[in-house]
Design goal:
Elements (H helix, E strand, L loop, with lengths): L4 H6 L4 E3 L9 E3 L2 H7 L4 E4 L2 E5 L1 H20 L1
Antiparallel strand pairs: 1-2, 3-4
Length: 75
């Protein structure tokens, strides 16, 4: 099971950014280097450096975070 999902999610910060390769500007998302510090298994690497994020895998953390919040609300 994923533990402390809410704590992990709360450490992430959504950003507006331009792609390093110039292919697009003003994208909304997460910064791979920052995510790697919090949830490294969501990041894929190239030459040992964070290259991007597996956003579909982020869903599992979000589901568990919602469950944690639901338990807090019920209390």
């Amino acid at each position: 099971p994923i533990e402390n999902a809410l704590d992990s999610i709360l450490q992430l910060a959504g950003k507006i950014y331009d792609r390093k390769d110039g292919s697009s500007k003003d994208e909304a998302g997460l910064i791979a280097e920052e995510v790697a510090d919090v949830i490294p298994n969501l990041v894929y690497y190239k030459d040992g450096k964070p290259e991007g994020i597996h956003y579909t895998k982020l869903t599992a953390y979000l589901v568990e975070a919602v469950k944690e919040l639901a338990k807090e609300i019920k209390k």
